Every structure is written in C-alpha cells, then in structure tokens.
From TrEMBL:
Residues 1-78 are annotated as: Disordered. This is valine--tRNA ligase. Its EC number is 6.1.1.9. Belongs to the class-I aminoacyl-tRNA synthetase family. One of its GO terms (biological process) is valyl-tRNA aminoacylation. It comes from the Eukaryota. Residues 29-43 have a biased composition (Basic residues). One of its GO terms (molecular function) is valine-tRNA ligase activity. Residues 97-282 form the Aminoacyl-tRNA synthetase class Ia domain. GO terms for cellular component: cytosol. It catalyses: tRNA(Val) + L-valine + ATP = L-valyl-tRNA(Val) + AMP + diphosphate. Keywords: Aminoacyl-tRNA synthetase, ATP-binding, Coiled coil, Ligase, Nucleotide-binding, Protein biosynthesis. Residues 351-412 form the Leucyl-tRNA synthetase editing domain.
Length: 455
C-alpha cells in the first residue's frame, strides 16, 4: 500500500492478446525463447537411493598353480629354484624341510653324550601321547608349541636334549572303533574273534588310520626325535608295564578286590568316569533306549526317567510299613538294607528290626546311618543297594552288608532278580516291577504309595 501523497506504481502492462485468446509475445521474448531452444537441458539429479550404481571393476584373479615339491626326500631345499610368490604360501615354504631335518638327525638324542653330563644339563620331554583314534586340535597345537619351545631353548643352551614322540592306543575308544568296523564288515565282535585275533585287528587298524597324528606333528615342525617314536602297545612298552606291576606286587602294593565302577552294556567293559556322559534331567523325561524293545506305554516307545517311585517295605512281625523312594526301581531287586537316621524319633522303635522284601521274601536289616540319611528329605528312610549305587556301596561297606548284583553284562536282570523278572532288560523290568507292586497294593499286601516327579 502506497504512502499518502505518493502516487501508486502502475501495474505491469499485459501483452495484448492474440487471436484465439493466447497472449502475444514481444520481439525480445521471442529472441530469448529461440536461444533457449538451442541449449541442452540440464538433467535433474536423481533422488537419493535412485539411479544406477557404478559397479566396481572386478580384478582378474589368476588361478593359483598347485605347488609341486621338486626337492628329493631328505635333501636340503634350494629356495633359489622356487619362483617368488605374490603372497605367502605355507605349503611352498614348509615343504621338504621336515624331511631334511629328520635325515640330518638334528633332533636325535645322544645317549652316550648325555651319560657324563650333570642333571641340570640334560632335558627330556615325553609328549603326552594323543589318542590314535582322533586327530590333533588347537589344544594339541598349543601344547606342542610350548613343549617344542622348551626343548629348543635347552638345545640352544648346549644341553643334551631329547623330545620323544608317540601315540596312545586309547583303550576303550580304539576298541569301540574297531568293533564297529568288525560288526559292519564281518558281522562279528571281539568275543567272536578272541583276544589275540582282536589285538591283531587293532594293530591293522592302527597301521591304516593311526598315522595322521604323526603327520600333523611333522607339519607343526616339532623338533622330536622320530627315531624313538613309540605306540603305547609296542612290545617294549608292554614289557615295561608288566615289569612295573611285578615290582609293585613284590612290594605288596597290589591287591584284588571288588569295586563299584561304570559299566558299558554296549562295550561289555568297565569305563572311567571321564568316558561317561552325565545328563541332568529336569523332571519327568522320556528317552529312547536303543538296546531295549521299546516302552509299550509310550507312543514312541520311549522310557520314563526323572521320576521318584515310592513303595513300601513291610516291617517284620508288624502291620507297619517303611516307605522308601527311588528313581531306579529295578535296583530294589538287589536291596540289602533300609537306612534311617539314628536320631530320627519317628523310627526309634525300628532300631534293630527288619523289613521283608516283597518279591524274594528276604529279611532286610534296618541300619542306622547318619552319613547317608537326611532326616528332612522324603520319608527319612533310604533303600540300600550296595552293588548298584556309589553312596549305597559306601554304606554297604560301613555296615558289612551283602552285595547282590542283579544285572547281567548286557543290562538284563539276572537270576538274583527272581524268576518273575529274570531276562528282562533293566528298563523293561522297571515297568514290570512297578506293575507287580501295584498288584500287591491292590491285593492289600502293600501300602498304597504315589509317584513324585523330581523338582
């Protein structure tokens, strides 16, 4: 809006309309329009994320030519004859050196030279023998590096050094592998062959498959004396073991006794704790057992684990019952005692008494054991099967109880379990025993109890 006294600017003159109602352009406007038509129009830049991306040019990768070791075995490698590689090639660099080191005897121990030297100028390292059934892993590599470093350090100090390589026959692991191979190829097990023939098969297997570990050690470059390589079943080592046991026997350090151990029904052999896979169950769990025919109560034939089964032992010359619980009901066939705590007031009147086994009719003593029994857990009464449980085993020794083994080597119930259950596989027997106990409850012979799932 214009101020007072100031004339307002005139509005811009509009171009006169041409015929048809379109505005008529001036000469200057026509010239500008003509110039604009001759210019190249600028392309609008594409919005972010649109448009074609330029792909980087791919470098041509020349295929790596396979390295061929031209050095004769045992001779020193001539690096001048090997073309210079674009990148480090461990296969080309490491090839042939180990053979030359061995042929030159650089790492051989000199027993004669070591005899007259003081103890602090001698160093001997025996490699912890890896299992011949496997192959070296990163842990072996670390251990070998540390051992080799120590050996080389002593060697550089001028000491008499010896680094001894070898492999372990691995006992159960090798036996299992060879037996599986025998069963697959010949349909036989070690018992069919006999001891001597089976040992021969192990040696054959070792010669065929057991050299990969020594090959790996050679690739690591360990400075071992390969002329002294040993296998734990070598005749010389076997003689040394026998000699050691003879000396122990002569000193009265050896004895024979029954001990509770881990038994493999598949291998028919005792196995160490380290060879047992322990599984923690969280309550009721159904698992497949390949050596069994299958649980008829489960659609998939699986067996129930992780459940406490309660049952009652009748007290001799009494109408009273002593209730116990177990997760392994089949072991009750070998029970030889029921333990209570000596300070448990609930059972003071049962001190020195007996209970009667519901199937065999055996008299089973009630023993007082403050070590094993926890008064606050369950009923405060514990069934004792010394031959089939580590804690019960110790309790059996403390109270001089009878040890009754109720299982065969393949995991079936033996004659000690009674005619009713003899020959049943242990988990099938577990089901049958539970049913038999229920029948006795129904007949009024036993107290009715219940199942409890482990928390």
């Amino acid at each position: 809006m214009a101020e007072e006294g100031t004339p307002a600017p005139a509005p811009p003159a509009e171009a006169p309309a041409a015929e048809g109602g379109e505005p008529k352009l001036s000469k200057n406007q026509l010239k500008k329009l003509a110039k604009g038509k001759g210019k190249k129009q600028k392309k609008e830049k594409p919005q972010w994320g649109t448009g074609k991306k330029k792909e980087p040019k791919k470098k041509e990768v020349k295929p790596k030519e396979p390295f061929v070791n031209q050095t004769p075995k045992g001779e020193k490698k001539d690096m001048s004859k090997i073309p210079f590689a674009d990148a480090y090639d461990p296969e080309a660099v490491e090839a042939a050196w180990q053979d030359w080191w061995e042929a030159s005897g650089f790492y051989k121990g000199d027993a004669a030279a070591a005899m007259g030297r003081p103890a602090d100028e001698k160093f001997v390292m025996v490699i912890p023998p890896p299992n011949v059934t496997g192959s070296l892993h990163l842990g072996h590599g670390l251990t070998a590096a540390v051992e080799d470093t120590l050996t080389r350090w002593h060697r550089m100090k001028g000491h008499s050094t010896l680094y001894v390589p070898g492999t372990d026959h691995a006992g159960i692991a090798t036996q299992s592998v060879v037996e599986k191979m025998l069963m697959k190829n010949e349909g036989k097990n070690r018992h069919d062959l006999g001891r001597e023939e089976f040992v021969k098969k192990i040696w054959e297997w070792k010669e065929e498959y057991g050299n990969r570990i020594t090959s790996q050690l050679r690739h690591l470059g360990s400075s071992v004396d390969w002329s002294r390589e040993r296998f734990t079943m070598d005749e010389t080592l076997s003689k040394a073991v026998i000699e050691a046991f003879n000396r122990f026997h002569e000193k009265g350090m050896l004895y024979r006794a029954n001990r509770l151990g881990n038994w493999s029904c598949a291998l028919k052999s005792a196995i160490s704790d380290i060879e047992v896979d322990h599984i923690d169950l969280e309550g009721r769990t159904f698992l497949e057992v390949k050596t069994h025919k299958g649980n008829p109560k489960d659609p998939k034939g699986r067996y129930e684990f992780g459940v406490l089964t309660h049952f009652a032992y009748p007290v001799e010359d009494s109408e009273e019952f002593l209730v116990v619980a177990t997760t392994r009901l089949e072991t009750m066939l070998g029970d030889t005692a029921v333990a209570i705590h000596p300070e448990d007031s609930r059972y003071t009147h049962l001190h020195g008494k007996f209970v009667i086994h519901p199937f065999s009719g055996r008299k089973i003593p009630i023993v007082l054991d403050p070590v094993l029994v926890d008064m606050s857990f369950g009923t405060g009464a514990v069934k004792i099967t010394p031959a089939h449980d580590p804690n019960d085993y110790e309790c059996g020794k403390r109270h001089d109880l009878e040890f009754i083994t109720v299982l065969t080597p393949d995991g079936a119930i033996n004659h000690h379990g009674g005619e009713e259950f003899e020959g049943m596989m242990r988990y099938d027997a577990r089901i049958a025993i539970e049913e038999a106990l229920d029948k006795k409850v129904s007949a009024g012979e036993l107290l009715n109890t219940k199942h409890a799932v482990l928390p």
